[in-house]
């Protein structure tokens, strides 16, 4: 850290050190001029090899219109012991350059307020007037922001991901970290870079956990307000003990990491979507972390973060269920049994105040009611986990409820729809992203079956602060409390319990997809399985 106290929001208070304008990108230089040449920014200097570290710091700094960042990437060829490029002499200090030029070089980033090029320091650099009399509240706020950002960055780089990846224990710190530091920015049609950063984080984090990751890319057609022509579903695969064998089974955990372009106004695009999007993704990542650091589960777990880019929320789900999933299951000698999907909707907002919950009449008739549910509904408290499923999703739902272990503080309320959709309730609960999972028909163990799926939600716009904040800027991390994090932890633990409780079930129908030479893929393994069955029959008789 160089001088980092002097903050000056007065127009023309900032001069660029000689030559700095030729090193800054054109966009950064233009933004400095457009802002009135104010000294309200922190310069972050780094080499290309330190880009990740610099980006982590900038993300933790959370720049805004009052406290801005001017990033400056310099090329190594300008940094040599014999000659320092003249354009850098007026910005870099002799006490920092050795980290970059002396072997072995040390990865580092340089933070500065530009010292003598800003405000009062133009006259006070290396003079007596650089004293405590120049301290004011604005300078202290700037200094505090730099301090907090450095501390957060150190914590982040010293604990890969968000917390101790080697721990198989659930931790609210991990969920809070993901919400506040990794999934805390708008990521939609007017926020291209933020969306790209989140997408890269999802891939890197799943890979770091040891998951096999890939991107399910799909084309967006017929959407004239969509900024992208492609969408990107991010998939992480955690192989189970029996992965690739005849008793292989699959469970899916899905969440939306963006919401649809076509339904979002510019104001809505500025929403960080802490509840409606980030909370489900955070839980999914925490489930992945816990399962990946413990004993391998019996079943294979597919984690999918769905991209909301497109005409509607169900576009990404449709491409996943009708493109990636069939291709994946067809790649096995024995098509694996698909147990179903847990789709994670908004799951941050719980509110135990009376009358904090709204349940429209069109939803009341969908209630799968018992005494405890009647009591919860009568008080209209928003403290419950809502599940939406069909009759044939019962096993999937029951396994979740058993592991969730509802209490008076955190009850559950079950909504049951008919068939693959119920039009009125779908609109009320904003569920189009789930319908492709319910409509998907799979060749499951030789017979065509509708895909089982259970949707988990805090009911989104029908509860507490989200009545006013749905798809608005106030759906942000300021609403995070320990009570709400405990709710998210409870959902996380229940999903982990469901996966760990699952036992393999043999799938003895071979997948007769042919190989390039025209023979069934399963010929040899089917013979092996048949021999095994004959052996078992011989022993038992």
Structural notes for this entry:
- The longest helix has 22 residues, at 137-158.
- Helix 7 crosses helix 10 (274-293), helix 10 packs across helix 18 (482-501) and helix 14 packs across helix 18.
- The protein is elongated, with a radius of gyration of 27 Å.
- Strands 4-5-7-6-8-13-9-10 form an eight-stranded mixed β-sheet, with helices on both faces. The chain has a three-stranded mixed β-sheet with strand order 2-1-3, with helices on one face.
- It has helices at residues 26-34, 51-61, 86-89, 98-101, 121-124, 137-158, 172-182, 192-208, 266-269, 274-293, 314-329, 361-364, 371-379, 394-404, 423-429, 435-439, 466-469, 482-501, 523-540; strands at residues 41-47, 68-74, 110-112, 212-219, 230-238, 249-256, 300-306, 337-344, 385-389, 412-416, 441-444, 447-450, 453-457.
- It contains 19 helices and 13 strands.
- 37% of the residues lie in helices and 15% in strands.
- It starts with 25 loop residues before the first helix and ends with a helix.
- The protein is α/β, with parallel strands linked by helices and 541 residues long.
Return Rg in Å. 27 Å
**Biggest β-sheet: strands ordered side by side in the sheet:** 4-5-7-6-8-13-9-10
> What is the overall number of helices?
19
| Contiguous uncertain segments of 5+ residues | 262-267, 420-425, 444-448, 512-541
* β-sheet strand percentage: 5-15%
Q: Specify the helix fraction band.
A: 25-40%
- Main β-sheet description: 8 strands, mixed
- The overall average pLDDT, rounded, is 80
Q: Span from first to last CA? A: 79 Å
What structural class results from the helix and strand content? alpha/beta
Shape: elongated
